[in-house]
Design brief:
binds 1,4-dihydronicotinamide adenine dinucleotide, about 375 residues, 16 strands, Alpha-Beta Plaits, Rossmann fold, seven-stranded parallel β-sheet, binds 2-oxo-3-(phosphonooxy)propanoic acid, elongated, EC 1.1.1.95
Length: about 375
């Protein structure tokens, strides 16, 4: 029986693909895997039993995945599974930022006991006149699963859409409408934008990437949206831009002590991915990735190990080696197997970044001392006997 510790609120119908042979445990100690969302697990005492962590969602800045790789723990995320939910909310807020919807509604509510409200509303409605997004310029920073959908939706709204993403994947480039103009320079993207929206992961080169300089380049009275992470946009710079009127309105998904007190800032409680559809599809994808890894050693959508697929084991045994991406690892593994006269049926090796993964099926089970020899290879992070 494999055990899964669930951290965070994972919707029930997202768990339907957990098959037989798995049980949910309340104790992380001794668990095989962790299924989670946004809880920050930096600094968590990670039990040695944990083999993988599946993040039902996109961002993995809450997980020390590079560090965990060296402990042989595979971290998965669910690319794209919640991107439509974020897109829909961002587009809705874009509309709110163009018309004073909230102000108008608040005015009406404030007049709920006024018998002349209907006539007064007619007289007052001028105060809530907005502008149309059609024909306005929007800059989209990051054109991945969310950003590409937001950019395309803005094209559909008749906006002039510009995108900045120096690491744009081929898949996302294919998905982008031709009307989205790529810009290779962030400052150039920001210049004279009426709207700016950020959709990049939180990492070293994205923290604070929108600062005073970039905000000053926007058209005066611009609307800015942050549905990525709280510190992609420098909060001090945003506060100053709001105070000066350079930014007319700021929408953010992050209720930081500062954002909650900034003028003309509308804060949502990290609800970008908060739809029943997104929650279920993230959970299902995370569960599938986790179960395939625990049962078969296959790796899909890991952020710290390469993709690796060998289907189900056809031999007597399947061994997976998680190790550093350095020379002569395969040489050392195969030398040990040759010494043991082990017949390898199938073998695969993949690498990405600092990590590599070698998996093989053998005709017979390997003796425990052979497994120990594999484990003692320098730079070997973990050896799993899957079957
Ligand atoms: N508010 C919420 O509930 C949600 C927030 N997010 C946040 O949005 C981020 C993006 O999500 P997805 O689009 O699904 O991820 P993704 O990985 O599909 O897209 C991220 C894009 O950012 C680009 N990028 C990376 N570094 C960049 C840089 N320095 N400058 C410009 N572009 C850069 C990448 O090339 C990629 O195309 C997530 O990492 C997460 O932090 C995602 C989903 C829900
Ligand atoms: O997928 C992401 O990156 C998100 O920010 C969504 O977070 P959540 O799973 O809703 O806590």
């Amino acid at each position: 029986m494999r055990t899964i510790k669930i951290i965070d609120d994972i919707v029930k119908d997202g768990l339907t693909t957990i098959g037989e042979g798995y049980e949910i445990t309340s104790d992380v100690e001794g668990a095989d895997a962790i299924l989670m969302r946004s809880t920050d697990i930096h600094g968590m005492d990670m039990p040695a039993s944990i083999r993988c962590i599946a993040r039902a969602g996109a961002g993995v800045n809450n997980i020390p995945h590079a560090e965990l790789a060296e402990r042989g723990i595979v971290v998965f995320n669910t690319p794209g599974a919640n991107s439509n939910a974020v897109k829909e909310l961002v587009i809705g807020l874009l509309m709110m930022g163009s018309r004073d919807v909230l102000g108008g509604m608040q005015w009406c509510r404030a007049h709920e006991d006024d018998p002349n409200a209907y006539a007064e509303a007619e007289a007052h409605k001028k105060a809530f006149v907005g502008r149309e997004v059609k024909g306005r310029k929007i800059g989209v920073v990051g054109l991945g699963a969310v950003g590409s959908k937001v950019a395309n939706a803005c094209v559909d709204l008749g906006m002039k859409v510009y995108g900045y993403d120096p690491y744009l994947s081929v898949d996302h480039a294919w998905q982008l409408y031709r009307d989205v103009t790529p810009i290779n320079d962030l400052d150039e993207l920001c210049r004279e934008c009426d709207y700016l929206t950020v959709h990049v992961p939180r990492k070293e080169d994205t923290v604070g990437m929108i600062g005073a300089e970039q905000l000053a380049l926007l058209n005066p009275g611009a609307v800015v949206l942050n549905y990525a992470r709280e510190d992609i946009i420098d909060e001090d710079a945003m506060e100053a831009a709001l105070a000066s009127g350079q930014v007319k309105q700021f929408f953010t998904d992050f209720a930081t002590p500062k954002s909650l007190h900034m003028p003309r800032t509308l804060v949502t409680p990290h609800s970008g991915a908060g739809t029943v559809e997104a929650e279920a599809s993230c959970a299902r994808m995370a569960v599938d990735e986790m179960c395939d890894y625990l049962a078969n050693g296959n790796i899909t959508n890991s952020v710290n190990f390469p993709e690796c697929h060998m289907g189900t084991c056809r031999g007597a045994s399947r061994i997976a080696c998680l190790h550093a991406n350095v020379p002569n690892m395969i040489g050392q593994i195969t030398a040990i197997l040759a010494d043991a006269s082990a017949n390898v049926q199938r073998m695969t090796n993949e690498n990405s970044g600092r990590a590599a993964y070698t998996m093989f099926d053998t005709d017979e089970h390997l003796e425990p001392q052979i497994i120990e020899r594999l484990r003692s290879i320098p730079n070997m992070w973990r050896v799993r006997v899957i079957q």
